[in-house]
Design goal:
single chain; about 230 residues; alpha+beta; 4-stranded antiparallel sheet; globular
Length: about 230
C-alpha cells in the first residue's frame, strides 16, 4: 500500500517535522536543534565517568552539570558548571562555552570568569568530529593532567605548577575544599541541584536496600514504588 507523508515522518527519525512555510534559515535551525538532542542522547552510554549533564527546562542549548573527581590532586572535588551552546552550534567553529559555577584553580580555567579554555584545545570546532561528549571528556581531562604545556587560560597557575609545586597543590586543595563547602549552593535555574539529606532520603535508601537487592531488579517501576513509600514518612 502507499505510505503517506505523515507515516514516513513518524517512522523515520531522520526527518524533522517543520512547517511547510518555514524559511530555509528556520529549517537549518531545526536541523541544528535535532542534532543537539541526538548528541545528548548519545551521552547516556558515552559520558565520561563521574560527569553528569542535565538540560535546562527552558532552553535546549543550556545545560547544568557536575563532575565528581575521584582521584589525583583534585580528588573529592565536586565542581558544578554550566554548558551553553551558541545558536549556530553544529556549524563550524561554533564552540560551546563551559563555565564553572564555583572557583576552580587550574591552568586551563580563566580565574576571573571560571570559563574552561576549550578553544585552545580545539582551535577549529568541527561538528563532524566534535560533540558534547568531546567537551565533557576534555573537562574531565583537565582535573587529571600532570603537565600543563598546552594551558593558556591561567598563566600564573601554570608557572606556579612548574616553579613551586607545593604552593600550587595548596591552592588546588583550597579550591577542592571550597567545592565541597558550596555543594548545596545551587544556581536558581539549575536542573542539577543538591539538597541536604532529609529523613525521606534515608528512608528511601533503606527501602531500596531491602527491596531491591540485585542490580538486575533495579527498574523504573521498582524505584518509583519505593519513592512513593518514602514520601509517606
Amino acid at each position: 500500500r502507499k505510505v503517506n507523508k505523515v507515516e514516513r515522518m513518524a517512522t523515520s527519525p531522520s526527518i524533522i517535522p517543520v512547517s511547510p512555510i518555514a524559511s530555509e534559515e528556520e529549517r537549518e535551525q531545526a536541523l541544528r536543534d535535532y542534532k543537539v538532542t541526538i548528541e545528548y542522547k548519545h551521552l547516556k552510554s558515552h559520558a565520561p565517568g563521574g560527569v553528569f549533564l542535565i538540560p535546562s527546562m527552558e532552553n535546549l542549548r543550556q545545560f547544568y552539570g557536575v563532575i565528581f573527581v575521584r582521584r589525583g590532586p583534585y580528588s573529592n572535588g565536586i565542581f558544578k558548571f554550566q554548558l551553553k551552546l551558541p545558536p549556530k552550534y553544529n556549524d563550524e567553529n561554533a564552540h560551546p562555552t563551559l563555565t564553572f559555577s564555583g572557583y576552580v584553580y587550574s591552568p586551563y580555567v580563566d580565574e576571573a570568569t571560571g570559563v574552561l579554555d576549550i578553544k585552545s584545545a580545539y582551535a577549529k570546532w568541527d561538528p563532524s568530529r566534535h560533540y558534547l561528549v568531546t567537551v565533557l571528556t576534555y573537562l574531565k581531562k583537565i582535573f587529571y593532567s600532570k603537565t600543563f604545556v598546552d594551558a593558556k587560560a591561567n598563566i600564573v597557575a601554570k608557572e606556579l605548577a612548574t616553579k613551586d609545586p607545593q604552593s600550587f597543590r595548596k591552592k588546588i586543595d583550597a579550591c577542592v575544599r571550597e567545592s565541597q563547602k558550596n555543594m548545596y549552593s545551587n544556581d536558581p535555574d539549575s536542573t542539577a541541584k543538591f539538597t541536604e539529606e532529609q529523613v525521606s532520603h534515608s528512608v528511601l535508601r533503606d527501602l531500596l536496600k531491602h527491596h531491591v537487592k540485585h542490580e538486575s531488579k533495579v527498574t523504573k517501576q521498582a524505584v518509583l514504588a519505593q519513592i512513593e513509600k518514602a514520601q509517606r514518612v
